[in-house]
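Supplementary Methods. Inverse-folding protocol.

Structures were first reduced to a discrete structure-token string of length 112. This string, shown here, constituted the complete conditioning input.
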């Protein structure tokens, strides 16, 4: 499994607006691609001093699924690490990762 990880930061004033963009645009658009092997999308929010951080994780079965998503976004295979940030998201984010990171998931343990 692969975790595609991206972070963005907003002012406290714009944090709710960015969360709305995630819920109404970013995540629904990604899910609408119907990429085989895309398992789940998660958004985590952390209030920090002076800004709000968002950590977004997309879970995939493997790198082939990640590359399939990149193809739906018209990204070249060698450009799959480039983040895709909509104009609406750019309006409310202070800054964001221009590249995403892909972590190979080595272990998952769940309580019984």
């Amino acid at each position: 499994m692969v975790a595609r990880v991206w972070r963005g930061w907003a002012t406290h004033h714009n944090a709710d607006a960015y969360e709305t963009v995630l819920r109404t645009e970013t995540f629904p658009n990604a899910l609408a691609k119907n990429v085989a092997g895309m398992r789940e999308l998660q958004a985590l929010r952390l209030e920090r001093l002076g800004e709000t951080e968002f950590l977004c994780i997309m879970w995939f079965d493997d790198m082939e699924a990640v590359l399939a998503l990149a193809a739906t976004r018209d990204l070249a295979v060698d450009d799959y690490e480039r983040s895709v940030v909509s104009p609406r998201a750019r309006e409310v984010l202070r800054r964001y990762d221009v590249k995403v990171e892909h972590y190979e998931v080595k272990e998952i343990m769940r309580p019984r």
